[in-house]
Amino acid sequence: xxxxxxxxxxxxxxxxxxxxxxxxxxxxxxxxxxxxxxxxxxxxxxxxxxxxxxxxxxxxxxxxxxxxxxxxxxxxxxxxxxxxxxxxxxxxxxxxxxxxxxxxxxxxxxxxxxxxxxxxxxxxxxxxxxxxxxxxxxxxxxxx
Length: 144
Description:
Blueprint: H1 6-33, H2 39-66, H3 86-111, H4 116-140
């Protein structure tokens, strides 16, 4: 077993927390902007993504404080494109999920062979984020 770089892990967990909190805002905003005949199922999807982002932020924060880190009170920068078609919202959601996926992969790289518990957490989150990207790609198929 390698030694866990606790400072680096805490830094990445803080980035994850800030990004997931930004996801709460992004998905909530997007859910408010949806219009058209498919509004209801897409709003429900986006609202569930906002709730899940909050859960993910809280989970990252629990790991962070468990490692004696201090959780940030910031959120990651959110770009506002001012494009609110369903296709644009789904494209931006896909970009958001891909970025989140990369943060969890960075965490996995940092904890691999140093902490089974954190490694399993990172792998679980990677699996969830990959599942979200697949769903969003399927939702976007009608637009391509």
